[in-house]
Write a structure and sequence with these properties.
Chain lengths: 536, 334
Amino acid sequence: MRDFADMFQAVDGSTKTTVKTQALKNYFDKADPKDKVWAIAIMSHRRPKRPMTTTLLREWAAEYAEIPLWLFEDSYHIAGDLAETITLLCHSRESDIEDSRSLDDFMKFIISMKGMDTEAQRVLVQETWRTLDYTSCFIFNKLLTGNFRMGVSQKLMQRSLSLSVGIEENVIAHKLMGDWTPASIDFQELILDIQPENMASKPYPFYLAYSMPGRSKELGDPKDWQVEWKWDGIRGQVILRDAHLYVWTRGEELVTDRYPEFTSFTESIFDGTVLDGEIMAFKDGMPLDFQALQKRIGRKIISNKLMEEIPVVFMIYDLLEHEGKDIRQLPMSERRALLEVIVKKAHNENLLISPLVEFKEWIDLDSLIQTAREKRCEGFMLKHKESAYEVGRKKGNWWKWKVDPYSIDAVLTFAMRGHGRRANLYTDYTFGLWQDGELITFAKAYSGLSDKEFNRVDSFVRKNTVQRFGPVRQVKPELVFELAFEGIAHSNRHKSGVAVRFPRMVRWRTDKKASEANKLSDLIDLIPEDGRNQDG
Amino acid sequence: MSRVSKSNELLRFSERGIYCPPADVYIDPWRPVDRAIITHGHSDHARAGHGHYLAHRFTTAIMKHRLGEGLSYQSVDYGDSVNINGVTFTFIPAGHILGSCQLRIEYKGHIGVVSGDYKLEDDGISGCYEPIPCHTLITECTFGLPLFNWKEDHLVKEELNTWVKENALSGKNSVLLGYSLGKAQRLQHMLETDLPIYVHGAVHHMNAIYEHCGISLPPTIYPQDTKKPEGPCVVIAPPSVLGTPWLRKFAPFASSMASGWMSLRGPRRRRSVDKGFVLSDHMDWKGLHTVMDETRPERVICTHGYTDIFAQYLREQGIEAITEKTEFETEQTE
Ligand SMILES: [Zn+2]
């Protein structure tokens, strides 16, 4: 564990890519192969499931640190990170700890605790805290809480690994795709073998676009570009190889069983085909709202009723493999032509092709994008007709062009302290909209103001607290903020009856009185009407 | 009459500061008053605009530099008592920075203490904290959470000197960032190096006051020109120099920040420095507990820091505790 902890410290303590790459490469050069596979798994979001609930961990940590639970919770709220809080309270302060356990030992230990009775788990966890210095304890707690992030992108990890083993980065990226676990594979097979046997199910790394930085006309001749709507579902890859169907999400989750609608693809499409597209809830020629797909994602058992209520399609963007051949290097226009033929032959109502947007001049798109909301789209995707299908997020040949967000003026009603740097400031806010002279809570937001503004709101909160509920303060309804958000839908899980997506503060409307903020009915009016909302 | 109402009579929180009615003086007031007693020289405690200042002689030396020579100052030493209208004010070391004092305030058998800012461990240059048994304790709790537990000075010292050595070996200068009054001198005091130590102007002026008060610090260089230093060196400066041309001339360097906040990963990472040293001039969680154990107050008033949380915790421990709003700041890094 020592070498892994040292590497983590070097990576965590630096913002410089060169330092991180070097630290990772050093680790990959020297570490035990078993540990390396775990390190790769951890850095590619393949962490083992947490062996116990975080509620139990909190109780054990409070008990171990001899503080009341509420004080643990308040401390957690201020540190902003559960594993860090536990570590600060529970790590060993002895300066001469020798821990000979390897990362592999640790991971196996953590996995072995799953399913034990909680009393046995408590003893093991508290005993382990006693033996770990700060960094090792932090890593241990991060693994226990199941949210270990190293501050290392996949790309950076792949580059360092590539430098260490001398295999090309793109090849490594492809090898690391899929649902392998360190229990099922060793370093030799995962990285070093030239033609491993389990490549059949492996998806290609996704090509991702950046937001278009300027105006569309700066992209040159519109004839060189293919434009599609930017659909709002789950990016996915459909693989047909060896008479098998594999459906992957961009998060590298294998979800074939979740979408029985796709089973028929094996009959409609030839073997040796890989499609890039969007998994979408889609009915009567139109996408359903974002809440609908959420309902499908959570379910493992799919009833016929649910499939009828929320049918799912695969909206294809691109063709990556054709007749068993990797065609990612062919120009976009050629891949598109091949794709159109495949879809035409398939005749499958769950297999749609993302239609091209017809336009002549860039200016045509400026007005067309205004209709994105009605179509339940997020905007446009712009792809150069000559572009290859690349690996990861790249600039230049693909751009996303998002429609402006929704916005509304709301009143600040409750405030909570922020995390980390803002731990002393009230920066986490709840907002309400008017209905019958009352403010109805509809969203929370934490970001979007400058430090200066946060300071001013903080001092307002302290001076205008009406009531306290634990760490939450109810404030006089006086301040108005413009909030922006990306999506909106009916919801019966929210008191307001409305769910909004990614709300954040855009500006402080110091020019507006609370009474001039929007009504809840104004928000409801923003919901695209089609009479088919799932839970309204 | 109960002790509690006696303490209200002795010390009161007003819009101008902590007020002692029988003596008609304020302690560390944040609005201009006629007569002020000052616990220590940090700018949120020693403010301009008062008619008359009473403080430890080291603190008046600091104030003369910061606020001006020509004001009305009265200086005392550690352990000295001053009687004002039957109220006895005694200056007891607080261990926070040069000249920092806690105030012991005795009136008609009631003893109150104003902690100012204070720290448990003796760092060798800030005076040594002494516990004062009292009825009422007015305390800071900047780091009044169980998250904050400082390492012993010698461990931080080792970490610091190792870091400086490693930087020198890899051809980099070491930049240590810390508040110019108190933290900067503590860092110098910890350094064990043959490398030249360059200091920023703000630090240089404070160093001169330390020297004037008889505290010897390692020799430093105050660069007057824009020439690049030759060979490896150590630089001590306030954090505000980050990104300025003044600092750039010391490139290539590794930067570090020394503060109690560096125990938290968020602030450590958001500060664009290479290394964070957990080094604070305030009481940590254990320190505050030691204070409670040794001074046995019947009543505690928390003034700045995590006041709500710490007061709630004390109440659960059976100590009467409340919070009062002041304009003192928590540990400064700028
Ligand atoms: Zn201070």
